Structure formats: C-alpha cells, structure tokens
Amino acid sequence: MATPDTILLVEDDRFFLTIEKQFLRSTPVTVLEARTAEEALASCKVQKPQLIYLSYDIPGTDGAELCRRIKTDPQMRGTAVVMVCDAKRQEQIEKSRSAGCDGVLTKPLDRHRFLDVARSFLAGIREVRRSCLIRVRFKAQGQPLTAKGLDISRGGVFLDTSVPLPAGEVLEMELQLSHFPEQGPWVSCHGIIAWLNQRDKMFKPTHPIGFGVKFTGMPAESAGPLVQFLKTVGRDRSGTGGN
Prior knowledge:
- The chain is of the alpha/beta class and 243 residues long.
- Helix 3 (63-71) packs parallel to helix 4.
- Helix content is 25%, strand content 36%.
- The radius of gyration is 19 Å and the shape is elongated.
- The protein has helices spanning 14-23, 37-47, 63-71, 90-98, 111-121, 220-230, and strands at residues 6-10, 30-34, 51-55, 57-58, 61-62, 80-86, 103-107, 130-140, 143-152, 156-160, 170-176, 186-198, 201-202, 210-217.
C-alpha cells in the first residue's frame, strides 16, 4: 500500500521523467514510475497513488485512452489524473479532457505550474485554503476590474470572474478582508494568474468561470491582516481552492 501522498509518473521518455522527478525531489511524497500503460495500471491497482502525471505519448496506447480506463474503473476512478500533452497538439488536449482527466499540463513543463497542480490535489504538500466570499479589485493590462474571491490561502486566491485573461498575467490586487457584505479593510498585493477555469476548458469543474491567482508580492502590512482573516473564515477547502 502506498503512503498517503503518492504520485505516479507515467512517462517513457527518460528526459522528461528525470525533469518531473527533479521537480518533486524536495516534496514530502512517494514517487512511483511507469513507462507503459500496463505498468501504470498495475501500479494503480496495487500501490494506489493519489495523483498521476500521465504523458499522452506512451507505448501500447495513448494517454487519453489510459486515462479513460482509470476513470471508468470503480477501484481507480477516484485517482486524480493530470495529462501531460504536447503544447502544439490541440487534439491531445481535447481528447484528454474528453477522457475525464482532472487537469492538463503541456510540454515543455514549467516547474512552478507542475508543483501547483500537485499542491492542489495532495494534502501533504499544499497550504490549507478556506472558503470565503470577498471583494477583489485588480488591475490587468492597465484596466481596473472587480471580482469575487471564493477561496483563499496565504499563497493565493481564486477569482470568480468572466474577464478573459491569460495564464501568466501579472495583477495588481486589493482584497477586502471581510465576510461579504461586511465592510472590512482593504490590503494590497501582487499576483500572477496560475491557472484558468474557462467555459470550454474547466481545469477544476467544481469551480465557476475564473482563474486561480498565486500571490507573488505580499507586503508585511498586508500579510498580517491576511493571516488573521484566514483564522476567521469557513471550512477547509484543501485541494479545491484557487491557488
């Protein structure tokens, strides 16, 4: 039986497998490897990983078909599957989503994005996120905008908004740290859009349209009030939050 936080890397390209292992080197997880669909299925059934990074290109079948087999098996369908696709092959991404995957990454892999995905699924390496409903003001591409913050941690916040912004967009933000409709203090910070929930590409189907923001600049005068606010907000949202 695997330890509580176990990741299976399904990748037959040794170069990419080495990169993924290096990304996870400092995280408190057990890392398993598989190079074929048969090895991956055997590992899922016996060692029961909580998260799989599944390359689309694997011997014997394509990754989307393997994902579908995992997601339709009563014993394995609860396992989170993140597909790793070729950024230039849109059909890979579409087939992966149709197969029921929980997320998609594209090659070349970005270390921060890779680890953010792991944190969103595994309790042992993520910050606790808490449900909230707060007002958020932000600037993007020079335009002042507003949104609702639906869950939050010291690392980031999910914004409920239909504003179409790309991943990687840098934001200047103000957060009103009070329970809506209360009027609490506003704090300033900077962030970057880490992932998108778009109507045709729902990275987290349990969330509305919007995006997850990773805090990149939190001044001391904002960090203190944020920590205090986190002590007052709702139930834990570990693994379902916005950052």
